[in-house]
Automatic annotation (TrEMBL), chain A:
Organism: Chelydra serpentina (Snapping turtle)
Catalytic activity: 2 reduced [adrenodoxin] + NADP(+) + H(+) = 2 oxidized [adrenodoxin] + NADPH
Ranges where the FAD/NAD(P)-binding domain occurs: 34-190
Assigned keywords, A-Z: Electron transport, FAD, Flavoprotein, Mitochondrion, NADP, Oxidoreductase, Signal, Transit peptide, Transport
Name recorded for this polypeptide: NADPH:adrenodoxin oxidoreductase, mitochondrial
Binding site for FAD: A43, E64, L72, I108, W393, G400, V401, I402
From TrEMBL, chain B:
Subcellular location as annotated: Mitochondrion matrix
Family annotation (InterPro entries): 2Fe-2S_ferredoxin-like_sf (IPR036010), 2Fe-2S_ferredoxin-type (IPR001041), Adrenodoxin-like (IPR001055), Adrenodoxin_Fe-S_BS (IPR018298), Beta-grasp_dom_sf (IPR012675)
SUPFAM superfamilies membership: 2Fe-2S ferredoxin-like
Domain 2Fe-2S ferredoxin-type, residue spans: 37-141
Name assigned to this protein: Adrenal ferredoxin
GO cellular component, one term: mitochondrial matrix
Coiled-coil residue windows: none
Origin superkingdom: Eukaryota
Cofactor: [2Fe-2S] cluster
Cited Pfam families: Fer2 (PF00111)
GO biological process, one term: cholesterol metabolic process
């Protein structure tokens, strides 16, 4: 991007070229698209990045509900996966670009409406992700000891709304419902050696709670079979190699599976082969002694569908989970789990449901499909609402890793660029951008947090972390953040 | 930007970028032209981008150092935590590449448009035999629309 900044080139027609330098600048300002992005996670930043790179004049403002940016990169990626967070560097570069501004501490739908944003900007891109989770819909779901994996992840990652979760870690066995990467993340955080966790950016409070945890065993329970697990091989490998732990894999679940996957695409094949190997093959000497010495264990249970969380004698705590034994109809990704009539109970004091995140509607005027949990759209253009776009999980659903969101965001940006070029977005309509939003916010007593403010918070977190031998000590109280930047 | 990437907290399970690069300024001056390798990148628009690196540079290094126009390349900065540096090699080059590790394959498995001659650019270091090779940046999205670029003079 840097190499392009110095060049002056005029795209729109010859009349402009006859103007003097000063008037040219004025005309350019009139024709610069004002674009707003709602949400500062990977979707928001990658959409902004693509727009800024592929349009010489576009101004992009990124809005965020929290004071701090980066969404799930900060609050979702596990503390022991710092490399995944390297994308923050490229996002920071984008935020520093002179045609980009970040405005935190602004809740769209409350502090300013989408309609008001549409009046201020030529295009509004909704990239606000999935802040909720799917619910089990079973009795006992609200007993103490039952939490969504989303809230648990938010808790150990310092998401302000989950800081008071106080999960009950006093029992020996935890059950995680779901077999995706989030399920593996929470299992790994529950069982990781403390000296490893202690060097990450996990919050101080959650680390202290985990240090007192009695949990020795974590089951990851899925409705279907080993061929339908949603986690990926790198994360599985990490779990198998987790120091101080041993895997509990029932050979009966894996016998013959090696042959079944001989001809399936490589990713599924290798993933299955790794499970089969761990379950059926005799471990090597080093591994065998590690497993023998392990004080904690984790395992996979298949073809079990949750029916009811069972209460303890006091009627308030979870003491176990009753599950239906299923059989599979069909095969591969589309296999369905059908109850057999058999039922099983598993004793546990902590249940984490990891069955998917879920988006929420932002504003009653924006189309939203509650069944799919997405904003209805075509190639990122919100249905029936010109000038409104969406990218990321709120557009496609809450699955995928950062590259998935990156590609998707570039795709939406592409639609915006097409509409700018074709005139669907009418640039002769002058838009004020943040100027008009600022006065709205001011009149409502809302103070935006700038990127420079975030850098002050960032520096404070890093400094505090240094004292504890961690990359950062996250501030979990938004008020404390605001005080730090004297708002 | 790679100065920011220099400090990597915690362990991480991927291969880190080679630390020798950060002493690169004076080292570069000392290297002779015999260590230069020319690589042609075909980006997603079909444009050919030609760049020069030195023996030992990874293909990610080349893309970053020469600021090549490839959207979203190298998101995790060479730590085997993504697949955005996925590149497709010519058969005769692919055969001579160093064997792939499990760690690289684990991430490559998640890449879009995987082919028989795919590798992750951050793991492939330039060697003399690669001089003038052509690598292709694979399609990133299912949608094959003509990409719009309003950043250049039309």
């Amino acid at each position: 991007m840097g190499s392009r900044c110095g060049r002056v080139c005029w795209k729109w027609g010859s009349p402009l070229r006859r103007l003097t330098g000063f008037s040219r600048l004025l005309s350019t300002a009139v024709l610069a698209p004002q674009i707003c992005v709602v949400g500062s996670g990977p979707a928001g930043f990658y959409t902004a990045q693509h727009l800024l790179k592929h349009h010489r004049l576009a101004r992009v403002d990124i809005y965020e509900k929290l004071p701090v940016p980066f969404g799930l990169v900060r609050f979702g990626v596990a503390p022991d996966h710092p490399e995944v967070k390297n994308v923050i560097n490229t996002f920071t570069q984008t935020a520093h670009s002179d045609r980009c501004s970040y405005y935190g501490n602004i809740t769209i739908g409350k502090d300013v409406t989408v309609k008001e944003l549409q009046r201020a900007y030529h295009a509004v891109v909704l990239s606000y992700g999935a802040e909720d989770n799917r619910i089990l819909g079973i009795p006992g779901e609200n007993l103490s000891g039952v939490y969504s994996a989303r809230a648990f992840v938010g808790w150990y990652n310092g998401l302000p709304e989950n800081r008071d979760l106080k999960p009950d870690l006093s029992s020996e066995t935890a059950v995680v419902l779901g077999q995706g990467n989030v399920a593996l993340d929470v299992a790994r955080v529950l069982l990781s050696p403390l000296d490893i966790l202690g060097k990450t950016d996990i919050t101080e409070g959650s680390l202290a709670a985990i240090a007192c945890s009695k949990i020795k065993r974590v089951w990851l329970v899925g409705r279907r079979g080993p061929l339908q697990v949603a986690f990926t091989i790198k994360e599985l490998r990490e779990m198998i190699n987790l120091p101080g732990t041993r895997p509990l894999l029932d050979p009966a679940d894996f016998t013959g599976l090696g042959d079944v996957v001989k001809d399936v695409p490589r990713p599924r094949k290798r993933l299955t082969e790794l499970m089969v190997k761990s379950a059926l093959e005799k471990p090597g000497e080093k591994e065998a002694s590690r497993w023998a010495a392990a004080t904690k264990e984790w395992g996979l249970k298949f073809q079990r569908s949750p029916l009811e969380v069972l209460p303890a004698a006091d009627g308030k705590q979870a003491r176990g989970i009753r599950m239906a034994v299923t059989r599979l109809e069909g095969s591969g990704e589309s296999a369905r789990a059908v109850p057999t009539g058999e039922v099983e109970e598993l004793e546990c004091g902590l249940i984490l449901s990891s069955i998917g995140y879920r988006s929420l509607p932002l504003d009653s005027l924006i189309p939203f499909d509650p069944k799919l949990g997405i904003i209805p759209n075509s190639l990122g253009r919100v249905q029936g609402t010109p000038g409104l776009y969406c990218s990321g999980w709120v557009k496609r659903g809450p699955t995928g890793v950062i590259i998935t969101t990156m590609n998707d965001s570039f795709d939406t940006a592409q639609s915006v660029l097409e509409d700018l070029q074709s005139g669907v977005l009418d640039l002769s309509n002058t838009k004020e951008g943040f100027k008009s939003v600022r006065s709205i916010l001011h009149s409502r007593g809302v103070h935006p947090v700038t990127f420079s403010d975030w850098e002050t918070i960032d520096a404070a977190e890093v400094a505090r972390g240094k004292l504890a031998g961690k990359p950062r000590e996250k501030i979990v109280d938004p008020q404390e953040m605001l005080q730090l930047i004297s708002h | 930007r790679w100065l920011l990437a220099a400090w990597r907290p915690g362990g991480g399970s991927g291969a880190a970028r080679r630390p020798g690069r950060f002493f690169g300024v004076s080292a570069r001056a000392r290297l002779s032209s015999e260590d230069k390798v020319t690589v042609h990148f075909i980006n997603r628009d079909g444009d050919k981008l030609t760049a020069e690196g030195k023996v030992g540079d990874s293909l990610l290094d080349v893309v970053v150092d020469k600021n090549l126009d490839i959207d979203g390349f190298g998101a995790c900065e060479g730590t085997l935590a993504c697949s955005t540096c996925h590149l497709i090699f010519e058969d005769h080059i692919f055969e001579k590449l160093d064997a792939i590790t499990d760690e690289e394959m684990d991430m490559l498995d998640l890449a879009y448009g995987l082919t028989e001659t795919s590798r992750l650019g951050c793991q492939i270091c330039l060697k003399k035999f690669m001089n003038n090779m052509t690598v292709r940046v694979p399609e990133a999205v299912a949608d094959a629309r003509q990409s719009i670029d309003m950043s250049k003079n039309s």
